[in-house]
Amino acid sequence: MLMNINFFVFDDFYFNNPWWIASHNFLHSPTLLLIFLALLWPFRARSGTRRYWLFWFFAGCLLHTALDIPTHVRDGPVIFFPFDWHYRFQSTISYWDPRYFGREFTVFEIGLNIVLLLYLLVPWFWGRLQQRRGGSPTPEQPT
Q: What confidence tens digit (pLDDT) does each residue in 114-129 have?
């Protein structure tokens, strides 16, 4: 039963069902995201508005898509959606498929996560440690 569901969702629907293609690529198509960003460009500096939030949301989606495209062999986003509903860039690397360096990419991704966590957590721990000792939270600058 689970195999049938996986087949329909990830093989049949993902590549053939218009509703599935549209719903997935609405926030993954670089073409559509660039159109949204162009329309919202005048509002990018007006903080506190909905259009400002939408601009930066779509910019984040475009960054995600820029990382998605080179890490999917056959299942990446539709590049020219909504103008072309089928063209996908075929990369030589897959972040999940072991036939296309998926294992190596997983090792890289775990290593990157560890480095980023250390980058975020070490200064926080250092500041807490300094506060408990009664010192300044950051190293003093020479005068």
A: 999 999 999 999 999 9
